[in-house]
Structure formats: C-alpha cells, structure tokens
C-alpha cells in the first residue's frame, strides 16, 4: 500500500502565535484518518494547512511523494487535487444541485459534466433531487451534495471539517458510516476533523489525538482505546478514569477495588504509586463481589445504564450495567473488577511508557 500523504514535523503559526508544533503522520492511499481533540487544539488549522489555505512555518507536507507545503513551497489549493467538505456545507444557494456539483468541472464537456453529475448523485443516492435548490433540502441531504461536489473532480483525497456537527446524533451516525462506505468504494483517502470520539472511531482507520497543538498519539482506534500513550489520551478517549494503586510484580497492581492483573509488564519497582486506567466496562455488578459501592448518579441508555459509583474512600468510578439491573441514587451495589488489560501511569515519570 503506497503512502499518499506525508506530514513531517510541521509547525503552523498565525503571526507569532504557534498553533501546532512538530506534527508528523502519514496516510496510505484509500485509508481514512481522523484528527481528534478538544476545541482549540489545532485540528482545523492542520486541515487548512493540508488543503493549502494556510502556510507552514517549518516542516513539510507531501502528496504522492511531492512536496506541496514547506516554508519555501506552497502549491495552490486548486492544484492539489484535494477536495474539501466544510462544516456549513458551503453550497451555492442560487444554483441547483446539478449546478452545484458541476461547478468545479469546467474542463469537461457538457456531456461529460452531465455524466459525472449523475454518477455522483447516484453515489450519494440523490438523483431524484437533481433540480432542487439547497434551501429545499434537509441538512443531511445538503451534506451529501457537498460530498458529491467534492468528489466530482476525482480528487486524490477528501478533507472533512466537522461535517456532521449541525446534524442530530442519529443522522450523524448514519451519515458517517455512509461517507466511509462511499470513500472506500472509490478508494479515496479522507482526513476528518472532529471532537466526537464515537464519530472518529466509526469512520477512521487511524486517529490522531491532538492537544494544545501537539500530536499525543497516532494509532488505530483499537490501540488508542486499549493502549493510550499518556493520561490525556486515556482520559479523552473512551470515558476513561484513573484510580490510585501500588505496583506489584511488574504486571499487577493493588487498588481499592482489589488486585488487578493484566498482560503488560512495567519497569518500575514494587510498591511504586501509580494511576490505573479503568473504563466503564471494566467494573461489573456482582452480588457476591467484595466491594460495596453507593450509586452516586446514573443515566439510562436503553440496553444499558451508566452508573457513577462512590467507593468507601469516596472515590468515584463508572460502570455500565445491563438495563435490567435497576438501582437508585444512594443504593448500595456490590461490584468487582473484570479487566484483562493493565494500563498504568507513574506520576513521577514524564511521558509514561504504555508497557514494556
């Protein structure tokens, strides 16, 4: 599989304000990646830099082996063969759907334009709406048209800047999977910007987690969830929370909720104070469990209920119970830990290793 996009140690600035520092990652042809992080972390700036709207201060960006951005090079956006789908769709209100999609196809003949427009509308299942105007469409339909317009010139890559943020949650989920299907069917690479980890995990082959302008981890969704590189990633991805413990025998830790043993070994001495990463699915209800917690808060979510539980020490942990298990605030519940992984962070070590 060939590398399509290569980002090497780029730094982006607005005047003298540093927005991103030392960002590096690569994307293969046909893969979809997501830039994930909180507001203000530099996601959109990085996307705009890849598109060619903003320059780089240092480092370089290459597409198919050719540099398209560096301190000395800036290939214009229209020459990069990169499509862009904006958060607000950016459709021309005075043009029909047909005319919006054909807008960037000036070099094609009239017949070729018509064929390409029809092909794109078939791809997004909207041929019946070809002569409508944007204001006559729903938000989801407008987003499909925006995608079709971006795909029409046959770009090498598509950039999507929080494209589903204006849609309701169910439509976001459906449209996200649909966009992934369309890009995969065309073997077109995509770079998605979002702050929604569910969206990122559903759409992307690789996810880059950013914070304060730096790449915290670039990895598969599975590895981000199970092997976070640091505490920021652990907390940001997958509803993680940390409880204190003491390391024993390099691969197990003593905590308030019992001994947790996993398949990772750590280099620190026995008795080292550590923080243990747990997820809601690591703590389960068990009437015979040795730990009694008090329900502090709960949220019913259909097939499961998300509980916040207060341990005897006052520490709060979280768990997902089957929705048939009903507890009210203040009720006692017996629990146990069922974690086959062991993710530890030593607060005395900078840039904690995940494992050795």
UniProtKB/TrEMBL annotation:
Give the matching SMART domains: AAA
GO cellular component terms, A-Z? ATP-binding cassette (ABC) transporter complex
Short name of one Pfam family for this protein? ABC_tran
* Keywords for this protein: ATP-binding, Nucleotide-binding, Transport
Which GO MF terms are attached to this record? ATP binding; ATP hydrolysis activity; transmembrane transporter activity
Q: Any idea where the ABC transporter domain is? A: 5-237
Question: Which GO biological process annotations does it have?
Answer: quaternary ammonium group transport
Q: Does the keyword Cell wall biogenesis/degradation apply?
A: no
PANTHER family reported in the protein's UniProt record: SPERMIDINE/PUTRESCINE IMPORT ATP-BINDING PROTEIN POTA, SPERMIDINE_PUTRESCINE IMPORT ATP-BINDING PROTEIN POTA
Q: What is this protein called?
A: ABC transporter ATP-binding protein
